[in-house]
Amino acid sequence: MAYKNFTVETDADGIALVTWDMPGKSMNVIDQSVVEDLKAIVEAMASEDKVKGVVVTSGKDSFSAGADLSMLEGSVVAYQKLKTKDPEEAAKTLFENSSFLQRINRRLETSGKPWVAAINGVALGGGFELCLACHGRVMSDSPKAKVGLPEVKVGLFPGGGGTQRVPRLIDTQEALQMLLQGRNYDAAKAKRVGLVHEVAAPKKLIATAKKMILDGLKPVQPWDEKGFRLPGGQVYSAKGAQLFPPANAIYRRETYDNYPGARCIMKCVYEGLLLPIDAALRVETRYFAHVLTTTEAGMMIRSLFLSKQELDKGARRPADVPASKIRKVAILGGGGFMGAGIGYVTAKAGIKVVLLDRDKEAAAKGKAHSEGIEDRAISRGRSTPEAKEKLLSFIETTTDYSTLADCDLVIEAVFEDSNIKKIVTEEAAKHMKRGAIFASNTSTIPITGLAKNFPRQKQFIGIHFFSPVDRMMLTEIIMGKRTGDKALAMALDYVRAIRKTPIVVNDSRGFYINRMVLRYMNEAYNMLIEGVPPAMIENVAKAAGMPVGPLALTDETAIDLAHKIMHQTIRDLGEKAVDPRHVELIDKMVEELGRYGRKNGKGFYDYPAKPAKKHLWPGAAELYPQQDPDRIDVQELRKRFHAVIAMEAARCVEERVVTDMREADVGSILGFGFAPFTGGAISYIDGMGTTAFVEMCKKLQKKYGKQFKPNKLLLEMAQSDEKFYERFNPKPQAEQKKAA
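The chain above was modelled as a monomer; its predicted structure follows.
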């Protein structure tokens, strides 16, 4: 029988080799056609007498990337439609759809034939759950081979049996860490903990898998045998009592119970280990179906998987502009922290880099930054001396502007001072070839104004990186009023080459991300001035889903930078543009107390020498009279953080600073970590409903000020509870009709 995504070959020993190789795909994913193929193959292998065992592997470099989440999104949409007509039938259908892979996996492991997974590369999510259902697992020792269940990162959890098979294979504590953190394991670690049985060289992978069957591999899973004992001990045992209470406490500490997927992992493992495997799998399916219907999972799937994937593939790239050939990039201010970071990620992508700075020592410092990153990576086993030398060979340091003559892209990353930027831009323009693109890495200064310093404004664009450049995955591309499609296309091609996610925004002071970041920080200043204890400000922000408290974030970005931005804004827009209370606070921190932030070890936190950890500066609580913390509404503080950021995102949509809702959401999460469980700043509003959001903001405005005043667009949308993703649907019309 012919299959769409698999080939089956049976050798003289009766071992069938099932090779998964989806046509037209770079990686194997589990979609409806794969489900149908797998179901048919399992039945065929079980009924074919001449087949003594089965090896399943991949015809691609990787094994599988897991389930196609757009298929799951479709199941949820179908459920929502059916729910309005027949809630009982809708729930039953969703349960059935949620267990499709689980049923196939269970049939496979009880088919009476031994199955071995030959894992030749990355095997994640549902792809790894298929491997877990096999009686034996052999993994390639290639450094590219990884196994894991990362579903929690997109708001879900493993629903193909992963929450039950993993803790039946390995120690329960290790299983919980793997599931709750979405950890990936290499071959050595996977074998050590018990997730795979053998590790083999890539060329010997299939032979090793077949040998397991020939050596008498039992076609029965351990948990189906009489007398099976859990590796981590029973739930109701001394060992279980020592594990689950602290595990639950750690889960709460790390997630603040914001993520239904993570919560259900805890429930699935705890409840499932009390039951036989078939009953445990039903428990898993019930929770999986429940999680699929949560607002959090829907928003996270859309933003962190589907939208991010579309943006990474160039959703905003002008289609009629040929692909850019970026052979050489120059960084002006390449010796600074940001410039050096940009140089590193560029060289890492195999592109030649020129680090230009005012003197040789400064430029050399930029190259040393790359060397330091590689040295740390080597010490952790993530790089090699050879890779380091190759990367450094791409980096050239100089003080001579004439070296820009053959660069395709020049990125300015000097101090956040419009006068300095003007000087280096005008000098660079004298030496650049006419077709080259000039980009500014400014974080707040409008691009249109900076472009006036460049003779060919169509070729001037903003590329805003986030710090630290080597770790932050977002890049904000800013269009000036005269920026052309060629500049946009090259910027997107460059960002894709350095493997970062781009969002495209129109010019505005602070652009998109920093406008929200400043609102986040400013609301913290408001709370501090009101007398909310600094520790409460920080802790509530983290409970609201932010990775870093606003006072700590101010320290990281530098209080003296906030000082410069405030006074630059006053010079440009007048004194009314900045809250005078905020100016007074930041002026005092910088001018009077000399507290610049992490950079000088003194900010809202103190930064003692290692190994001591940073801690809140005691003086922060003495800046203003303190309220009684027991009388402060913590939930209201949490709402203020979410609302003030989402409100700014809505203003940016109204002002056409951001025009694609995918970018608005993905940018808010990747740019500064806005509560990922919400799906992003715009999804936060859509998830609540514009009517409810506006009502909440009006109450906050009345109590705390104009920063919560709903804008005209929100008021208009609230009249009919219209959603942003409906009014500003980023999908092409043809795609919308297909989805309907």
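Residues 736-740 have pLDDT under 50 and may be disordered.
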